[in-house]
Fold this protein.
Amino acid sequence: MKLILSLVSSQVFVAVSAFAEKPNILFIIADDASRDSMSVYGSPYVETPNFDRIANEGLLFTNAYNCNPKCAPARACLVTGRYSWQLEEATNHNPFLSEKWKFYPYLLEQDGYFVGFTGKGWGPGVYKGVHRGRDKFLTPENPAGHPYNELKLKKPYRGIGDGDYAGNFALFLDQKPADQPFCFWLGTKEPHRGYEKDSWKKDGRNLDDVVVQDFYPDNEIIRGDLADYAIEVEWYDTHIGRALDALEERGMLENTLIIATSDHGMPFPRVKGQIYDEGFRVPLAVRWGAKIKPGRVVTDFVSFPDVAPTIMDAVGMDPHEQMTGSSFLYALLSEEEGRIDPARDHALLGKERHDTGRVADGVFSVGYPVRALRDDRFLYVRNFKPERWPVGNPEYGYPNTDGSPTKSYLTNLDEHHPDYRYFEMSFGKRPEEELYDIIADPHCVNNLAGSPEHRPVKEAMWKRLQAGLVAQEDPRILGEGEIFDRYPNSRIEPQREMYENPDYDPVRDFEVWKRSQK
């Protein structure tokens, strides 16, 4: 009997020791915060000391990309480890997310991790999991984890949510069994719109400090909108600081792999949802105690599909077979800076349907298909349906740009107004090809696609983009892209109202279309 107890005790000790050696995972993500809004990337009017702390005590990626610059598709890439155009219905915004996909938080749960999330996880869209008999790992409430949203706080401005993200994370830590590592997703709902207008005045900010991008007119309306946005970016940063404090207070900081980012750029015209640099180039800082040589800056190109394989690699698990991204654990553990892996010299990007409010050939809510390739110097963009309105049809209010003072200013301009060119940059139709020199033109204002001098660059990038997408079996590049227009958008009632068609049923229409393709 003593021998049996001794063996059992040894096995328990081995199991607990194995867990103790596994890192905890804290993934922190903002909702709609641009990379260059983090002060560590050079923002002169937004202060993010806690994001900067992660970068300074760990490493900072300068070439991180979201694969598809809208909330639901970008987050789908994160939780599945797949490129957006490989995710079928989840390539689109507001999809009915299939149960077929595996999500890294639940893969870690099956390996013994205590899993949770707070705030915004995957979404928006509809997800319905499937019960699996007596398996304790049942229906995920959200692909990001099990919800911890109990604690609320007093919000400083009307546009800010009342969720206490860091407080809920601390609550999660206190509920975690002592013998389990954790995997937690902390997703703020800021700086998503709407904002309390002119909150910058209450906060005592100076509009002279605000820097306006080249694709906007420089006036008080735009500056005020950017200043209101800055307050919400800083709110995100305060929760990073409180989360770090919660870990330190519990002695967990050094064995926690912390990844901080944002899903895409700020909720302004020509940024969120658009294939320009500020829309898809995201902040990314990583801290992992003594395992990461601090203060390093890495220029390797990494993308959201790479995050899940990296996390699984870090905890000692093989990436799931569905994952097509590539781990960048090597970069975390290296002592080198700059370009560590010479092969990581570009990113593939794209979008399909982000919005409703676009009709073509009798089909409601079609998308605006784009694919792009970004390397160290150039961005090449291929607009597959340039005859369509890129931000949605004018009669529906350009719905792929959130309502804002900036949007209102631009869309109310008369075509004879001297600022009208800024409206066209954000809302006008686009040519089939675009090419931007990011070094000379970081805001992607001067299209070089028609320049004879840049023709060799354009053709080489298109060829490389095609090859990459063919290798990934992208339906759009294989001539089967219509299916992305047909996948149903889950917000059915608003579409019926928009199109004044009470009988519109995108689920039914999709099934009818599928049968017609057989």
Q: What stands out?
A: Residues 142 and 166 are 19 Å apart (CA to CA). Residues 347-479 form one domain.
